[in-house]
Amino acid sequence: MLNIQKKMSNAFLALLGLPATAVGFALSTQIAALSWILSNKYHLDIHDVAFVWLAGPIAGIFGQVIVGLLSDNVWFMGGRRRPFIMIGGLVSTIAFLTLPHIRGISHITGISDIILIASVIALFLDLSINVTFNPARSIIADLTPEGKIRTSGFVWMQIISGFFGVFAYFLSMVFGNEMLLYIAAGIVFLTAVFPILFIQEKKEQEQTKTETQEKYGVWHIFKEIFPLYGFLVFGFFSLFYHFFPEVLGLWHNPVLIAALAYSVIIGIIIIVQGLKNPSNKNEFQKIMLAHSFTWVAFQSMFILSGFFIEHQILPNIHTSVSANWFAEKLTGTVQNSGATVGNMVSLGFFILNLIGAIFPLILQSIAKKIGRVKTYIAALTFSAIGYFYVAYFSHLEIDFYIGMFLVGIGWSAVISIVFAIMSERVNPAKMGLYMGVFNLAVVLPQMMSNGVANVIKATGNHQLLYIFCGLLVSTSVIFWMFVKEPESSGVPQNIPKGGH
Fold it and tell me: Is the pTM of this model over 0.85?
C-alpha cells in the first residue's frame, strides 16, 4: 500500500479520482462530438440524434446495476473494482476510434442503416462508460471513511474530472470534434488503466449487522426503483415510438405527461411517508427521485443544445463568433456554420465544466457551515436560474455563455456532493450495488430526453428545451428541500438506521 493511501492524503484522493476522470473526459468528448458528428457529418435530424443517445441509458440500465452487483462480490486481478475500470477503459478507447468511421464500417459490413451502426457504437461507448463509472465512484466510497474525507474524495474526483472535461471542450474548439475523438481514445486509456494499479483495495467490506442476511436480487432491485417507474415506462415507449411514429403518435404526449405526473405523485407520497416514519431507505428514495428530475434536464441540454444554438442564436449573430477564435487563430481554418455551432456548444460546455471543476472546493467550504443538503439545494437553484435565463434572454452568443456559467454552479454539485450524501444512506457492503441502483436515477431519466426532442420537433419551438430544463430542475430543488442532512455533516438528524 502506498504511504499516501495510509495517510489518506490529498495526493491519494487525487489518485483515487483518476479513474472517474477517464469517465469524465469520455463523457465530455461524447457530449461535444456525438450530436455534432451525427447531425453535421451524417445529417441525422433532432429525433434521430436523440434516438442514438438512447443507447446510453439502455447500457446504463444493464451495465451499472449488473457491474455494481458483480463488483461487490468478486475479487480478481487484485481488486474488486479494478478489473471493471480497466475493461471499461479499453472498450471506450475502441469506441472512440470507430466513431469517425461509421460510413467505412457501413461499407465493410454491408449495413446501410447509419442510425443502426451509430447506435451500436454509442451503445458500446456508453456501456464501457457505465462499466467504468460505477466502480470508479464506488472505490472512493470503499476506501474513505464517512464524513469529511469521503466528501473530499468526491470533491477531488469532480475537480480533476472537471478540469479534464474542460480540456476536452478546449481541444474540440481548437482541433475539431473528429480529432477530439482520437485524442480521447489515448487519454481515456491512460487514466483508466494505469492509476488503478497503484491503489490497494480492501478485500473485506464493512457491513451493518442488521443487513448481513438481506438478499439482493433482480426483484429486490426492481422494488428499489419504484419511484422511477414513470421514466422506465416512457423510455421503452420511446424505443417503440421511433419505429412506429404514425401508430403511436397520438399516445406520445399523454404517456410523457403521465410519466412525469407519476413521478411527482410518487415523490409526494415518499415525502409524506418520510415525515411519518423516517429511515435511511426513505431518504435514499427521496434523493434518487430528486436526482432523476435533474438528469432529465442536463441530458436534454447536452444532446439538444446544438439545435437550440442553430435556430435561436446563430441567426441573430452578424459579427464574428468568439467561439471560432481558437480554431481560426491557432489552426488558420475558416469555420463554416456547422463548425460554428459545434464551437459554440463546446465553449458553452467549456464554461460549464470549468465552473464545475472550480466550485466543488467553494461548495465544500460552504457545506461545512450550513450542511451538504442546503449547499446542494443552493447550487441547484443557480442551475434553474441559468436555464430560464437561456430560455428567455439568450438571443446573442454571450447570453448562452452567461447561462452556462449559472448552470455550471449546479453541475459542480450534481456530480460531486450528491454521491457523498447518498453513500451514507446505504449498506457500505453493497456500495457497488446501490451505486448502480442510484445510477438508474440518471440513466432512466435520460431516456426522457427523447420525449423532449420529439416535442421540440413537433412544435418547432427550440426555446422549449431550456424552459423544460428550468422546470425540471426547479422540481428537483423542491424535492431536495425534504431530504435530511446526514449525521456525519455535523448537523444531527433523527434518522433511524433501518432500511439500507
Answer: no
